[in-house]
Amino acid sequence: MATERTPVAILGAGPAGLLLSHLLHLNGIESILVEARDREYVQARVRAGVVEHGAADILRQAGVGERMDREGLRHGGIELRFDGAGHRIAMSDLTGRHITVYGQQEIVHDLAERRIADGGDVRFACGPAAIHGVDSAEPSVTYAVDGVEHRIVADFVVACDGAHGAGRPAMGESLTTFEKVYPFAWLGILAHAAPRVDELVYANHERGFALYSMRSPSVTRLYLQVPSTDRLEDWSDERIWDELAVRFSLDGEPWEPTRGEIFERSLAPLRSYVGEPMQRGRLFLAGDAAHTVPPTGAKGMNLAIRDVDLLARALTEQIRSGAEEGLRTYTDRALRAVWRAEYFSWWMTTMLHRFDDDSGFDRRVQTAQLRSVVGSEAHATALSENYVG
Ligand code: RFL
Ligand code: PHB
């Protein structure tokens, strides 16, 4: 078996793994990144769309925000639609900050291109890698390509391998998990259609939640809350568009998104998960490997970016000068932001979705909650602070 050595072995070429590898490179620290899937697959995976203010700054400062600033859509507000009326939350006026609507796969594309241009050691199509010896001084990562086994011995291993990777199981019994599973999923589509709105619309309707988002002036991104038992085959194009028109209703009248060819569709279950701590020995977890948030708060990718920003600094201090403080406090510092995002995402999810066991009382309380958010500057500011990041 071929054995190599590196200061930092990274699993996963999502936003977390690629950005970590890039940030370490900027600090003069080498790493090897191992990704299970091929590059085309990773770059085509459609997911997040909202980059919060702070995360956009991290990308900019790392020199990988140029295309995001050129092609991303800068938004200063969102609409909350309920009871047949729309209410704008003027986030930029309330906070002085804004969000950028820019697809996660574009960020992954920009990061991958930059790593490769910089000569970074990023290995795609390795199949699922395994993690060993995290409690020892010489942890390692193994993977096999075409029947040939590879072993990378590292000073530190960072699992940025998402919710279903090798990082979570490698934590073993040191992990305490906190989880909440919602009884619904989001059906998401991308369509070749000019968005009918300039800003995102989060709609609470008695038939369920809907979200109007976008990727560009000619590509619309839309989501529908559906029961977690639904399958994609249950939803024809016609049924999707008709349901969207009902859930976005204004003044009791259906309100149609501009229709167009649907070229991507997927189902995503809604859940919250946090694993504590985010470190075991020489293994560190970052991004979805450590936590999941329901997408209603648009926080998942942003947390991944914040985790690796902390971790890159801490690893750099440790490797350069032996200073241990940053790594020792990584879990506590990261978890503070994680739980804040868990709280906000839970709050948005429960306020905006329809729950099957809702009584008339629950529905009326939900509407009262939405009214107080749009009717009070203090509430709208709190939402904006959390959302804009
Ligand atoms: P990723 O992106 O899942 O990347 C993990 C990578 O690891 C690879 N992998 C392995 N590689 C090697 N060895 C193994 N054993 C491996 N196991 C797995 C995988 O192939 C993959 O390439 O994790 P990362 O980098 O932590 O990034 C997290 C984000 O992807 C995620 O939080 C967001 O997409 C969540 N999310 C949103 N976040 C936002 O900040 N704003 C949004 O607007 C937003 N909208 C969303 C979302 C997620 C959604 N879905 C599909 C769950 C909307 C949706 C619908
Ligand atoms: C998206 O554009 O994909 C998106 C926007 C806002 C969310 C989740 C996803 O809360």
Explain this structure to me?
By secondary structure, this protein is an alpha+beta fold. The chain is built from 13 helices and 19 strands. The strands form three sheets. Strands 1, 2, 8, 9, 10, 11, 17 and 18 form an eight-stranded mixed sheet that branches. An eight-stranded mixed sheet has the order 6-5-13-14-15-12-16-19. Helix 3 packs across helix 9 and helix 12 packs across helix 13. The chain is globular, with a radius of gyration of 21 Å. The protein starts with a strand and ends with a helix. The site of P-hydroxybenzoic acid has 10 residues, from strand 14.
Cofactors, ions, other ligands = 8-demethyl-8-dimethylamino-flavin-adenine-dinucleotide, P-hydroxybenzoic acid
Strand content: 25-35%
Helix content: 25-40%
Whole-number mean pLDDT: 97
Overall body shape: globular
Structural class: alpha+beta
Largest sheet: number of strands, sense, barrel closure: 8 strands, mixed
Defining traits:
389 residues, eight-stranded mixed sheet, binds 8-demethyl-8-dimethylamino-flavin-adenine-dinucleotide, binds P-hydroxybenzoic acid, alpha+beta
Layout of helices and strands:
Layout: E1 2-11, H1 15-26, E2 31-34, H2 39-44, E3 50-51, H3 53-61, H4 66-71, E4 73-75, E5 78-82, E6 85-89, H5 91-95, E7 99-101, H6 104-117, E8 121-123, E9 130-132, E10 140-145, E11 148-159, H7 167-170, E12 176-192, E13 201-205, E14 208-216, E15 219-227, H8 237-247, E16 261-276, E17 279-280, E18 283-285, E19 291-292, H9 300-321, H10 325-328, H11 330-352, H12 360-375, H13 377-388
Parallel strand pairs: 1-2, 1-11, 2-8, 5-13, 11-18
Antiparallel strand pairs: 3-7, 4-7, 5-6, 9-10, 10-11, 12-15, 12-16, 13-14, 14-15, 16-19, 17-18
Helix pairs in contact: 1-6, 1-9, 3-9, 9-11, 12-13
Bound molecules: 8-demethyl-8-dimethylamino-flavin-adenine-dinucleotide and P-hydroxybenzoic acid.
